[in-house]
Each structure stands twice: as structure tokens, then as C-alpha cells.
């Protein structure tokens, strides 16, 4: 049976009355099936953890039967699934991970949340990540002295990227924020609507994740004035600016930590996780990154909670951040038996929204973030597990030297059916809305570059096509759009070659812009459902369904035969990721249906 004929439900407008119902309200849910395939449908949900069943009613629409049921939203996050009785008398469960023939656990249930969603501008965004030291230098950068901690480098020097080399975090290229502002035409040309920079606070490293203070912008980046100029320039263009905050730790040179280290009776001593023997907890054993203790009310007031906190102050003029990306959000507030992570997430979001009602808060989490996304904390996550790794595994060149951070071996190369299963399970685990609010990333400053993973410009563009068409918010790391390479995170932080335009992959740059334009023009690519149409080893095809029009996406990693998908009408080509308009070779093709 064609995948399009399988019974289907998701959290999009065709299948759910509203993504954000009120608590104790009733919301309509619908299942679509091929006429004659299903005899009866029951909605199963839980009332205070007790399962209950409600029989669905049917209506006929051409070759489809729609099954309608009313879901009482009894809990802040309500889980549900469907029991199907098929025409032959057999039974199946329809879950968010697909159809199953057995009585499985509730892990992959559909879910609907009463908590407020991410702002519309975030859901519709294309995010562009900048690593300031490596993006661009303004003329003013030439007049700034190199700090004592730094190892100076010329813009064309090779990046030192082996973790055992002490120069890796110290190599200093001198990019600054005015340099970013001077290149916003390029950022906007990619289709990006949001700029996210890695930290801008002073820290004795090129990455600045070891902040020495949160009270000012690093003078090496141009100080507060340069940050304000960047913010103003973005907002004048109708774009947004996200900050990057290390809520889990500071640097060991931070003023708070220096006070705590010097005097066990200092007020900030309780702000860190000191052991009885005087040693302190760190991020992953790095002594330069002492861990903050979020059980301290005083520390939380300084860092994440209330109008005087770091979170709040930088969202007010003259900077006016539109939201935050929270570094290692998964570890924040967690240490052994202590877990106040949800309290911290709620505090960050509550504080941000008090300053700006439409604030957007994204938590970094590089494995299973599902238990952190259902509530009123992080709107979404950087979706490595649910997007990056499955796409890498489908498109990875077996001979690529790219390394996946945190893994002892490369990501395995897999065929379409396993990749589709992975995508479905992670979407089910996170829930529809949280997935749509999370970032589809092909790489970041912490990972290999997608061009190095695929080893091919053509397959790189296939990856980009999936990034812009699967549910989620595309986030590209500066340089992806022109084909920059890197075998792991530090190597991926190569300076942008502004003065070597002849080395740019102009076709890939044009592809990113075209995909962003298509995403902006077709509501289905942002708010539409996801119904799989065809999957084989080398092809993934799916429909993004929306009342304003559907988009068919066909992604191929190798040449293949034309698909016969039994569509209701002749599709109209929107774009192909290949310059010659190829649709039967490695490419992603979008069709209006």
C-alpha cells in the first residue's frame, strides 16, 4: 500500500483544531484514511493517568474517510492515540511514530500542550549563526591590541583544531560585531530573518563560553556600542537578534567566581557548586568552567530570574535582544541528585517574556530533549538527534573524515527506511509543536560541516533541501551557504573568506536563498503537516499539508525512477536544488499539489 494511503494524523491544522487549546477545553482531532480501509476508530486518551476511549464518527470526502473525535484537554500536556479496527477485522494503533500492530507504551503518543507556543516570528524564521571571532573584521579591529591570553592569527591562517593543542581555544582572528553589521546584506541574501551569535561577553578564549562578566560586551568585539549598532541594523531590516547565554557555568576568571574562590564566606560562594573539600564542580571536567548552583535564589536572581538578571537586562534597550539561545541547557540546574532544570527553564522564559511578550528561548540539548520541551520553559531545542544525525546518516560520504562530536565512531550510513523511522520516532518523542519550534541544523560551531559530511556539493544541497522542508526551523552556520568545510567543531570555525569570492560555491548560496523564499511563500512548509508518500533506500518523499495548499517534497541521494504517488492532481514544480532543474538525480524537488 502506498504510504499516502496509510491512516494519518498529526498536529497540523488539517488534523487538529488548534495547537494551543485552553485547559479543560475540548479540541477536535481527525484521522484521514482511505475509504473502505478502516471500519472503526477510537480515540484513546488518559484522565489523571487512567486510559479512556471515545468512539470517532466518520465522514466521506472523495476517496478518503475522515474520522472525527473530541479530545478533552484534561492536563496541561494531554497525550492521545487512536485504535483502528480495519476492514479485515484486525487492529492497529495510530501513534505519532506511525502505525503499530501491537500494544506499545505511551512514549510515542500524540500530545497537545496548553502552554503558550513560540512566537510566530520564531516558528517562521530562518536562523543564521555567527561565531564572531571568525566572521568579519571591521577597520576598527586593526587598532585593538591583542589580549595577553590570545595567540594572534591572520585571517588566512589555518585553524588549530586538535583538542590537545593548547592553542585551539586561544587562536585569535579578531572578528568583531561591526564586521557582522557590515555584512548584513549577505546574511539577508541567504534568506535569514534571525541572527544568532555565540557569546559576546568577555572571556579568555575565542569562543567566549568562559565569561569573565555578564555586565558588558567584550571590548575586542567593539563593546556595548557595537552590539547596539548591530541590533539596530537588524531591527531596521525587520530582522531579529538572539543572544547566547551560558546559564550552566561561568569562566574561572568571572568576578563572581573570583570572589567565591578567594573567600569561603563570600556571598557568591553559594552561587557555585563547591564541594566540602573546597574543590568545585565544572562543565565536563574543565577547570576553567565552574558550574553555577541554581538552588541559590541569589544566583538565580542575578542570572536568570527577574528584572535585574542577565537574561532581562540585555533584552532592554539599547541592545533589545529578541530572545536567547541557552548553552548546555540540558545540564543547567542538574548535578547528581539535584535537578531544578525545569525551574530554571521556566524562570528564563518568564523573565524573557516579561521584557518582550514575543521572546523566543531555545535550549541547547544534543541528545533526547523530550522531557525538557513539554512545559513552559524552552520553546524548542537545537535538534541534533531528531534532525542532524538522521540526515547525516542518509547523506554521509563513507570516506568523509567528518567527526560527530560525542561519538567514538562516525555516524553510520543508513538507507531511507531507517532514516524515516528515526525522523518519525524523534518527532513523536518531542511532539508536533515542539519539533516545529526547534532548529533543523546540519551543523554548528560544535560539529563538522555538512559539506565535509557529504563530501559533495550536490548532496550538501540535498541536505539543505531537507533542512528547509521538514518540520522545524532552519538554522545555518555562517559559511554553510558557500560550502565551507570542517571535520569537527573547531575546524568548522574557519574565517569567512570575504576576500576570496572566487572560492565560494555560488550555486549552493543561490539554493539556500531559493529554499528560504519557498518556505516564506508556502505556509505548508512552516505550519503544514507531514504525511509520508514514498520511502526507499535512496529516496524520501513526503507531503507538507495545509489548508492553503500542499507541497510535495522528493529528496533523492542517488538517481531513481519517477515516482507514481497516486496524487489527486498534476503537481506544479516549485524548485529543484539542482541548477539544471534535475528531479531524477540527487536533488530535492518541491512541487505544489
How many β-strand stretches? 28
| Overall average residue pLDDT | 96
Poorly predicted runs: none
The biggest beta sheet is recorded as: 8 strands, parallel
Quaternary structure type? single chain
Taking Cα atoms only, what radius of gyration do you get, to the nearest Å? 25 Å
By secondary-structure content and strand pairing, the structural class works out as alpha/beta
Order of strands, widest sheet = 21-20-17-14-13-10-23-22
Globular, elongated, flat, extended or rod-shaped: what is the shape? globular
Notable features of this structure?
eight-stranded parallel sheet, alpha/beta, 24% helix, six-stranded antiparallel sheet, 23% strand, 17 helices, globular, 593 residues
Please characterize this protein's 3D structure:
It is globular and about 75 Å long. It is built from 17 helices and 28 strands. Helices cover 24% and strands 23% of the residues. It has 593 residues and is of the alpha/beta class.
Topology diagram in text:
Elements: E1 26-34, E2 38-47, E3 50-55, E4 57-61, E5 64-72, E6 77-86, E7 91-95, E8 98-100, E9 110-113, H1 120-123, E10 127-130, H2 132-135, E11 151-152, E12 171-172, H3 177-181, H4 184-189, E13 194-197, H5 223-236, E14 240-245, H6 255-262, E15 282-283, E16 286-290, H7 297-303, H8 310-313, E17 323-326, E18 334-335, E19 338-339, H9 341-355, E20 360-363, E21 380-381, H10 384-395, H11 416-430, H12 432-436, E22 439-441, H13 450-454, H14 457-469, E23 473-477, H15 489-492, H16 506-521, H17 524-527, E24 531-536, E25 539-544, E26 551-556, E27 572-576, E28 587-592
Helix pairs in contact: 10-11, 10-14, 14-16
Amino acid at each position: 500500500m502506498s504510504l499516502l494511503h496509510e491512516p494519518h494524523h498529526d498536529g497540523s491544522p488539517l488534523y487538529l483544531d488548534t495547537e494551543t487549546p485552553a485547559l479543560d477545553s475540548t479540541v477536535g482531532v481527525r484521522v484521514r484514511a482511505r475509504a473502505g480501509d478502516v471500519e472503526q476508530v477510537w480515540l484513546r486518551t488518559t484522565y489523571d493517568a487512567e486510559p479512556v476511549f471515545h468512539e470517532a464518527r466518520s465522514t466521506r470526502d472523495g476517496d478518503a474517510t475522515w474520522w472525527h473525535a473530541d479530545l478533552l484537554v484534561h492536563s496541561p500536556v494531554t497525550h492521545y492515540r487512536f485504535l483502528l479496527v480495519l476492514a479485515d477485522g484486525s487492529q492497529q494503533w495510530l501513534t505519532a511514530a506511525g502505525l503499530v500492530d501491537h500494544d506499545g507504551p505511551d512514549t510515542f503518543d500524540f500530545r497537545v500542550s496548553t502552554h503558550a507556543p513560540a512566537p510566530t516570528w520564531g516558528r517562521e524564521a530562518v536562523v543564521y549563526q555567527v561565531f564572531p571571532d571568525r566572521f568579519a573584521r571591521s577597520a576598527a579591529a586593526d587598532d585593538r591590541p591583542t589580549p595577553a591570553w590570545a595567540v594572534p592569527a591572520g585571517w588566512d591562517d589555518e585553524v588549530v583544531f586538535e583538542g590537545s593543542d593548547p592553542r585551539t581555544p586561544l587562536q585569535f582572528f579578531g572578528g568583531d560585531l561591526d564586521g557582522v553589521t557590515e555584512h548584513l546584506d549577505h546574511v539577508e541574501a541567504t534568506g535569514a530573518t534571525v541572527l544568532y551569535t555565540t557569546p559576546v561577553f568577555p572571556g579568555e578564549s575565542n569562543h567566549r563560553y568562559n565569561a569573565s562578566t555578564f555586565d558588558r560586551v567584550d571590548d575586542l568585539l567593539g563593546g556595548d556600542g557595537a552590539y547596539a549598532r548591530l541590533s539596530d541594523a537588524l531591527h531596521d531590516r525587520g530582522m531579529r537578534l538572539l543572544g547566547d547565554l551560558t546559564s550552566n557555568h561561568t569562566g574561572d576568571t568571572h568576578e563572581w567566581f573570583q570572589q567565591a574562590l578567594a573567600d569561603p564566606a563570600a556571598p557568591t560562594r553559594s552561587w557555585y557548586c563547591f564541594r566540602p573539600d573546597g574543590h568545585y564542580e565544572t562543565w565536563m571536567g574543565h577547570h576553567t568552567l565552574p558550574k553555577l548552583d541554581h538552588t541559590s535564589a541569589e544566583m538565580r536572581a542575578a542570572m536568570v530570574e527577574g528584572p535585574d538578571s542577565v537574561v532581562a537586562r540585555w533584552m532592554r534597550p539599547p541592545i533589545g535582544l529578541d530572545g536567547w539561545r541557552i548553552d548546555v541547557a540540558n545540564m543547567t540546574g542538574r548535578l547528581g541528585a539535584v535537578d531544578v532544570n525545569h525551574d530554571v527553564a521556566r524562570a528564563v522564559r518568564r523573565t524573557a517574556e516579561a521584557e518582550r511578550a514575543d521572546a523566543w528561548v531555545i535550549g541547547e540539548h544534543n541528545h533526547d530533549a523530550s522531557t525538557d520541551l513539554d512545559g513552559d520553559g524552552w520553546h524548542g531545542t537545537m535538534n541534533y538527534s531528531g534532525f542532524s544525525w538522521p540526515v547525516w546518516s542518509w547523506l554521509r560520504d563513507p570516506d568523509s573524515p567528518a567527526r560527530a562530536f560525542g561519538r567514538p565512531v562516525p555516524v553510520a550510513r543508513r538507507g531511507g527506511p531507517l532514516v524515516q523511522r528515526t525522523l518519525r520516532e524523534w518527532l513523536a518523542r518531542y511532539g508536533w509543536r515542539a519539533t516545529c519550534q526547534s532548529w533543523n541544523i546540519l551543523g554548528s560551531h560544535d560539529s563538522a560541516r555538512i559539506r565535509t559530511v557529504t563530501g559533495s556539493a550536490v548532496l550538501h544541497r540535498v541536505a539543505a533541501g531537507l533542512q528547509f522542508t521538514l518540520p522545524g526551523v532552519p538554522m545555518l552556520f555562517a559559511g554553510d551557504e558557500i560550502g565551507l568545510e570542517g571535520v569537527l567543531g573547531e575546524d568548522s570555525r574557519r574565517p569567512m573568506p570575504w576576500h576570496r569570492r572566487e572560492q565560494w560555491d555560488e550555486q549552493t548560496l543561490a539554493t539556500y536563498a531559493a529554499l528560504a523564499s519557498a518556505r516564506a511563500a508556502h505556509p505548508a512548509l512552516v505550519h503544514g503537516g507531514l504525511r509520508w508518500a514514498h520511502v526507499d533506500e535512496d529516496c524520501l518523499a513526503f507531503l507538507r499539508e495545509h489548508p492553503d495548499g500542499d507541497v510535495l517534497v522528493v529528496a533523492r541521494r542517488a538517481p531513481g525512477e519517477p515516482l507514481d504517488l497516486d496524487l489527486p492532481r498534476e503537481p506544479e514544480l516549485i524548485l529543484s536544488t539542482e541548477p539544471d532543474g534535475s528531479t531524477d538525480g540527487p536533488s530535492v524537488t518541491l512541487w505544489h499539489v
